[in-house]
Amino acid sequence: MDNLVSILYIVAFALFIYGLMGLTGPRTAVRGNQIAAVGMALAVVATLISIRDTANWILIVAGLAVGIALGVPPARFTKMTAMPQLVAAFNGVGGGTVALIAWAEFLDTSGFSQFQHGEEPTAPIIVGSLFAAIIGSISFWGSLIAFGKLQEILPGRPIGLGRLQQPVNLLLLIAAVGAAVVIGVRASGDGASQWWMIGLLVAAGVLGLMVVLPIGGADMPVVISLLNALTGLSAAAAGLALNNTAMIVAGMIVGASGTILTNLMAKAMNRSIPAIVAGGFGGGTTAAALAAGGEQKQAKATSAADAAIQMAYANRVIVVPGYGMAVAQAQHAVKEMASLLEAKGVEVEYAIHPVAGRMPGHMNVLLAEAEVPYDSMKEMDDVNGEFARTDVALVIGANDVTNPAAREDAASPIYGMPVLNVDQAKSVIVLKRSMNSGFAGIDNPLFYADQTSMLFGDAKKSVGGVVEELKAL
User: Fold this and answer.
1) Which keywords accompany this UniProt record (predicted)?
2) Are 88 and 224 in contact (CB under 8 A)?
3) Which strands sit side by side in the sheet containing 347-352, from one edge to the other?
């Protein structure tokens, strides 16, 4: 029976890895998810087989039923615009679960003083459980704040204690680690140890809140990825404490992939991970756009009819989607507009910035949902050299990722961040509800450039107006 369990675990984490490989491309992503789901099902079966007490089976099955009932509805009915919030919530639940597992292990072993079958306390179990408790608690409470900011329940701007922020965070970390050391040394189930464990969870939870609150909306995609990596590491630590191979491997896969993704996103924003965690960026005040002489510049408004004429007589159009397209659910209208332009002989492509929207791949998924060909979606490095020979660049709700100040203004908060070279196109049409700034809270000089015109309004309605005008041409 033990050999069967080991074999099932090996097959399960092999399917985890194979499924993850499928997530590298839109064409194989659905199949990759399905393969990983089969792996998880096998891991659950292996766990049930390894448990001799059938009474625990009832608890596990009941837990699975509750999880399915709570997890499936939001996964099925949440709109794509709210998918980042859903990811943050699910990630937080994972971290909180790991923290609860660590707490349950502490209670089950009388404060790590007495293990199953009379075994002596071992360092891997104690350290793994306490590490999982700290990191899982940080991830849970931090993810709640990320969810609140993405859902706009909390302000997107940084909320912190100023210069006291980092000292307070350091004190909370020292308190959590100190409590863990005391618990590990005492290895006792007495009342004092119980309070030390509660103090550890509270200190780590407050630390999770205090780390994410000062981080502005501009950095939220990176924060979600970082918290996801932390959840994976805490799950691996809990698996080590429970001697559960599937948890160890799955946790390490999530932790490693989340770490790699966090690093890639930070590079795409030209922001170091320590700088992001330090907070204080995003959601600030908007800078005024001034001309060389010091006078305030004015944006030029356009109409759907003028935009349709510009694009209909162009040779090449590049669409730059952003969060505004996601909010308006305009991807289907954009696909219809592109089809009309292509019927007129216009070449249409889509420029995708790595951090456009509120999570990695946000724009790719939206466009794929509208059946936009994958080959038409160009990554930033592949498309940036094409803007100079582009007749019209159509920007739909993208702010910071098209801001030329990132290349030209050393005083800009986003200076050095790789951006799409939209300003190099011969003509630029920007679809926005208003002149409000993006997540970074700074103005975009592109909006006031000579070749730029603004089409104000809801993106779906604006694109729909362009579609009707194209049909009439």
Assistant:
1) Cell inner membrane, Cell membrane, Membrane, NAD, NADP, Translocase, Transmembrane, Transmembrane helix
2) yes
3) 377-379, 347-352, 316-321, 392-396, 427-432, 452-456
pLDDT tens for each residue of 18-50: 998 888 777 788 899 999 999 999 988 888 888
Q: Rounded distance, CA 296 to CA 348, Å?
A: 34
- What is the rounded CA–CA span in Å between residue 178 and residue 159? 27
* CA–CA separation, 376 and 393 (whole Å): 14
Distance CA(114)–CA(116), nearest Å, equals 7
Residue 88 sits at the vertex; the CA angle it makes with 143 and 420, to the nearest 5 degrees, is 115
- Please state, in angstroms and rounded to a whole number, the distance separating the CA atoms of residues 314 and 337: 14
What span, in angstroms and rounded, lies between the C-alpha atoms of 287 and 438? 12
- Phi, psi angles (nearest 5°) of residue 134: -70, -55
Q: What is the DSSP string of 66-95?
A: HHHHHHHHHHHH--GGGHHHHHHHHHHHHH
The Cα 367–Cα 377 span in angstroms is 8
Distance, CA of 322 to CA of 388 (rounded, Å): 21
E-strand ranges in 273-355 read 316-321, 347-352
Domain boundary assignment for the chain: 1-77, 79-278, 304-472
| Other C-beta atoms lying within 10 Å of the C-beta of residue 434 | 8
**CA–CA distance, 129 with 136 (Å, rounded to integer):** 10
- pTM for this entry: 0.78
Mapped onto helix, strand or coil, the DSSP state of residue 292 is: coil
Is the separation of the CB atoms in 187 and 111 below 8 Å? Answer: yes
CB 149 within 8 A of CB 82: no
Check whether 114 has a pLDDT greater than 80.
no
Check if the beta carbon of residue 200 is closer than 8 Å to that of residue 129: no
Would you identify the CATH topology of the domain 304-472?
Rossmann fold (3.40.50)
By annotation, the residues acting in catalysis are: 400
Tell me how far apart the alpha carbons of residues 194 and 189 are, in angstroms, rounded to a whole number.
7
Q: CA 389: distance to chain centroid?
A: 33
Q: Measured on CA atoms in the order 442, 448, 449, 455, is the torsion positive or negative?
A: positive
Torsion of CA 325, 329, 334, 337, to 10 degrees: -130
Q: How far apart are CA 473 and CA 460, in angstroms?
A: 20
What mean pLDDT is reported for the chain? Answer: 85
CA dihedral (90, 92, 96, 102) positive or negative? positive
CB 106 within 8 A of CB 158: no
